[in-house]
Write a structure and sequence with these properties.
The structure is a single chain. The chain is α+β, with helices and mostly antiparallel strands and 412 residues long. The protein contains six helices and 23 strands. Strand 17 and strand 18 form a beta hairpin. Helix 1 crosses helix 2. It binds guanosine-5'-diphosphate. The site of guanosine-5'-diphosphate has 18 residues, from helix 1.
């Protein structure tokens, strides 16, 4: 049987607006969990998520960040929500790149600071499809006028970061009561649009980026008897065929692809999403390492001398100034990079320039910056190859910032 296409969903929105409750109820309606897993009482749906969280900590059940459910059309994975610890890092490193966002706005509260931040952040991180759930509609007596008022307010907000509100479904829901999650609710007979599950099924499945240049960030390099050196990694973009010439950057080693293997089977070609091991003529174990990126010789991965980036400071105990040199995590590489220039501070809710050449950046700030890697690294313009342009900045054991490369000054 043909496997269903798959969509990663991020639930975003202000704290307490009902993200966990909505995910819990959605899992229930989709049949991914059973009623028995629910607690009684006011917090019953949120309980599902908390409960799974608890169990995860005890190592009993699946990761909260990777809850799965299916409809007739798609398989979905709920990726972690902003605010949860490694959300941004996971998104950036591609572990859980979200294909679409469900923005949850509580009808009684309206647009709040985190609503704005998450909208801006998700756009920065490359989420281009959005569904808006106006939640807790029960708390405003299923009032159509109130819904329309919020729809206008949220439309204005998402427009500032570049979403077209005309293409975004706005759905009145009660995560707690279940209105308009799977079936149209009689409580909102004035609403003629899709339910949440219908809107999810109207999302476009992500296309495999087969026409972008070939990029395979190397995770590990093995020596296998009878085969030789076998770099392994996931094909992020492009297609690789046996017999083609590939180069590893920044290492510079190159050669002809002799074999491609996946799950102990050999293949003639590898595509985006494939986790492969491959062997390249003349490339030995000491010639390449984790963090190198393989690409075609005639369209090699870009090695940056310096690069410009747009960043969001997520949680920093101090301030970021020129000269600061934390570790940048980009695809499989980890390289300390120095801030050369704080070019401009941005309004976190709109992305517009708020201040040129600020003295420092602190938690909550978004900015354009110029950065210099302390050793050669592959990073590319996220507009050309999104998968190769995202990074997380880690320091003192936490993700302090996240961003996108917007221009590269090549080293070669
Ligand atoms: P999160 O922080 O966004 O994940 O929000 P939660 O899912 O934890 O919900 C916060 C509180 O709002 C909880 O007490 C929920 O029971 C309550 N809540 C969530 N959705 C609804 C809803 O649709 N209607 C009502 N009345 N309460 C809700």
């Amino acid at each position: 049987a043909k496997t269903k296409e798959h969509i990663n969903l991020a639930f975003i929105g202000h704290v307490d607006h009902g993200k966990s409750t909505l995910v819990g109820h959605l899992l229930l309606k989709a049949g991914a969990i059973a009623e028995q897993q629910l607690d009684d009482g006011e917090n019953k749906f949120r309980f599902v998520m908390d409960k799974l969280g608890e169990e995860r900590e005890r190592g009993v059940t699946i990761d909260l960040a990777h809850q799965k459910f299916s409809t007739k059309k798609y398989d979905y994975t709920v990726v972690d929500c902003p605010g949860h610890r490694d959300f941004v890092k996971n998104m950036i490193t591609g572990a859980s790149q979200a294909d679409a966002g469900v923005l949850v706005v509580a009808a009684d509260d309206g647009v709040m600071p985190q609503t704005k931040e998450h909208v801006f952040l998700s756009k920065t991180l490359g989420i281009n499809q959005l569904i808006v759930a106006i939640n807790k509609i029960d708390l405003v007596d299923y009032d159509e006028a109130k819904f329309n008022e919020l729809k206008e307010e949220v439309s204005a907000l998402i427009k500032t970061v570049g979403f077209n509100p005309a293409n975004v479904p706005f759905i009145p829901v009660s995560a707690f009561e279940g209105d308009n999650i799977k079936d149209a609710s009689p409580n909102t007979s004035w609403y003629k649009g899709d339910t949440l599950m219908q809107a999810l099924d109207n999302l476009a499945a992500p296309e495999k980026p087969v026409s972008l240049p070939l990029r395979i960030p190397i995770q590990d390099v093995y020596s296998i008897t009878g085969v030789g050196t076998v770099p392994v990694g996931r094909v992020e973009t492009g297609v690789m065929k046996k017999g083609e010439n590939v180069i590893f950057e920044p290492a510079g080693a190159s050669g002809e692809v002799k074999s491609i293997e996946m799950h102990h089977e050999t293949f003639e070609t590898a595509e985006p999403g494939d986790n492969i091991g491959f062997n390249v003529r003349g490339v030995g174990k000491n010639d390449i390492r984790r963090g190198d990126v393989a690409g075609h010789v005639d369209d090699a991965p870009a090695v940056a001398k310096e690069f410009d980036a747009q960043i969001v400071v997520l949680q920093h105990p101090g301030v970021i100034t020129v000269g600061y040199t934390p570790v940048f995590h980009c695809h499989t590489s980890q390289v300390a990079c120095t801030f050369l220039e704080l070019t401009a501070k941005l309004d976190p809710a709109t992305g517009q320039v708020a201040e040129e050449n600020p003295d420092f950046l602190k938690t909550g700030n978004a900015a354009f910056v110029k950065v210099k890697p302390t050793k050669p690294m592959v990073i590319e313009n996220a507009k050309k190859i999104p998968q190769m342009g995202r990074f997380a900045i880690r320091d003192m054991g936490q993700t302090v910032a996240a961003g996108l490369c917007i221009d590269v000054t090549p080293a070669k």
